[in-house]
Each structure stands twice: as structure tokens, then as C-alpha cells.
Amino acid sequence: MSQRRKFIKQSLMGTALFIPGLESTVRPFSRKEINSKPLILSTWNHGLPANDAAIQRLKSGGSIIDAVEAGVKDTELDMDNLSVGLQGLPDREGITTLDASIMTGDGSCGSVAFVRQIKHPISLARAVMEKTPHVMLAGEGARQFAISEGFPLEKEELSPKAAEAYQEWKKTSQYKPIINIENHDTIGMIGMDANGNLAGSCTTSGLAYKMHGRVGDSPIIGAGLFVDNEVGAATATGLGESIIRICGAFLIVELMRQGRSPREACEEAVRRLISKNKNIKDIQAGFLAMNKDGEVGAFAVHPGFNYAQATLQENVLIDSKSHF
Ligand code: SD4
């Protein structure tokens, strides 16, 4: 566990705390949610600095899509995060492959899956959205598109932390596709600007030691991310296979469309996920949502999921409730 994560975990036991350098505070779960625009939410502890980056982008005149891109780009560069970006843990063959998606509330979306050597897959997903007639590019085709758009290709080598972890894993080469404390740091971010326009982004290196070619929920529009200006936005983290099976993010937005609050919709999605997946004790998944009125909700299968919530005034870390 990174020092920062340890620190934030410990902080949660206390009251609101200032985190030096992050302009952020940490507070325990609060039932009463903020109702303020703009609003940025993102998964896990690294959501705090990512939210700061997103809010900065809005303050400097960026749009909500600029903000959710800038926010998760921060995480894509975080060397402590072994689940996002090229420093993420590799697949079974020792190759790091990345998935990302981006969406705006008018239905525009783009994603990349199983892509190699690209430092900012979220920006590549945005380029797919804005510059191609398609929604999704995968693998070599995504890489070729990146080259044609002038994205630099990074050297294909594992970060020191990922290389060490991979060497350790190879001793047994046991594949256990479960989300545990060290395999859970995907960032999903959803945001709303001052005018109520919504956007979201999601980026990950996926599950450690996955099969080569495996794609998770994060680049699947409707699974890891869904945004609709008429209703709200949702994102997911956790075992991608379990989330894809229930179209998690889309399900939550549709439940909100029918009148559920974000929290109720996330809870219902967790119930659905539990009913459609075996071995639920080994599966962690967490959902995060906002509606167009700025109400926020989250829910997870197991304890441990948290999210960061930022307005112009504050950026706080909140523990999600869970089914178990
Ligand atoms: C995946 N959902 O590829 C991602 C993993 C994840 O936090 O969320 N990790 O299945």
C-alpha cells in the first residue's frame, strides 16, 4: 500500500484534515451530499489530486470534457498507481495494455481498448470521439491511429515497481481474477459544469496478469462509464467482467431516469451484479453516480471503496457504503 494511501486511510479515522499540496480535505462518509455546480467525482484516493486537476482546468476556462480529460491524465502519470497508465501491472505475458473511455452528456463518446505504448489513452479516446466516425478502436489499430495523430509512442518497458511485482507473480503464475487491495485503482471520473453539462472519463491498465487481449469494462460505453445530460452520469471500478455482465453504468443512469436517487441506483446495480455473478466473495465492484441536480451516490459490493468529491470550495474523500 502506498504511503499516501496509508496516510489517507488513517486520516479517515479522524475529522476533516488538510492534505498539504493537494488543497484537499478528507472526511468520513456523510449522508447529506453537496448540491453545487461545478461538481467533479472520481473513484478511489487518487481521485483527490485528479479532482484538483479537473477543477483547475475548469477554472482556467476549460470545458467539462477538458476537465475530465485533464483530471484522469494526472492519474495516468502517477507512478504509485499500478492500475492506471503505462506504469500499471502487465498482463500474463509481461505486457502492459491500456483501456480508456470518455463521454459527454449529448451522447458523444470515444474509447480505446488493449492499446500499448500510449501514455495518455484518455486523450486517444477523446481523439477517437472527435476525429473518427467510430466510437471504439482497439489494439494495433488504436496504436496506428495514435501515431497518425502525433501521439508519441513510449518505450515498452515495465516500471520498476511493476517489473518487481511481475517477477514475484511469475514464481507461481497463478491467475486469480479478483479485485483486492492492490488491484483496484482504476480511475472513473464524472463531472458537471456550472451550466449542468455532464461528461465522464475512465482509464485503466485493467486487471493485473490478465490474459493477453483481455478488455475490461472501462472502455465499454455503458459498462464502465455512461453519461446523459437529461439524467446524470455513472462510472464503475472493480472486476470488469462482473460489471460488463450487467451494463453497470448504463443500468444506473436508466434507474435514475426512472426516479431512483444516485445512491439507490448504485445500490440496485450492486444487487443485480451480485445476482448475476458467482463467487461474489472474491468480487469487488464499486459504482459512483451523480444526477443532473448534483445529487451524488455510491455503492460497492464489499467495504473499502471510496471516492473523491470536489466543488470549487472543497475536495473531500468519502467512504462508500457496501452490500456486505
Ligand atoms: C477492469 N474495472 O479492467 C477494471 C479494473 C479496475 O480498479 O477497476 N480496477 O476490470
Describe the 3D structure.
The chain has 324 residues and is an alpha+beta fold. It has a single domain, classed as 4-Layer Sandwich (Glutamine Phosphoribosylpyrophosphate, subunit 1, domain 1). It is built from nine helices and 14 strands. It has helices at residues 3-12, 47-59, 64-76, 121-131, 139-148, 160-170, 240-244, 248-257, 262-276, and strands at residues 17-19, 24-26, 39-43, 98-104, 109-115, 136-138, 187-192, 198-204, 225-228, 232-238, 285-291, 296-300, 306-310, 315-319. The strands form three sheets. Strands 6-5-4-8-7-3-13-14 form an eight-stranded mixed β-sheet. Strands 9-10-11-12 form a four-stranded antiparallel β-sheet. The protein has a two-stranded antiparallel ribbon with strand order 1-2. It is globular and about 50 Å long. The chain starts with a helix and ends in a 5-residue tail after the last strand. N-hydroxy-L-asparagine binds at residues 83, 184-186, 204, 206-207, 216-218, 237-240. Residues 83, 184-186, 204, 206-207, 216-218, 237-240 line the site of N-hydroxy-L-asparagine (SD4). InterPro entries: Ntn_hydrolases_N, Peptidase_T2. Pfam families: Asparaginase_2. The record marks 185-186 as: Cleavage. One of its GO terms (molecular function) is hydrolase activity, acting on carbon-nitrogen (but not peptide) bonds, in linear amides.
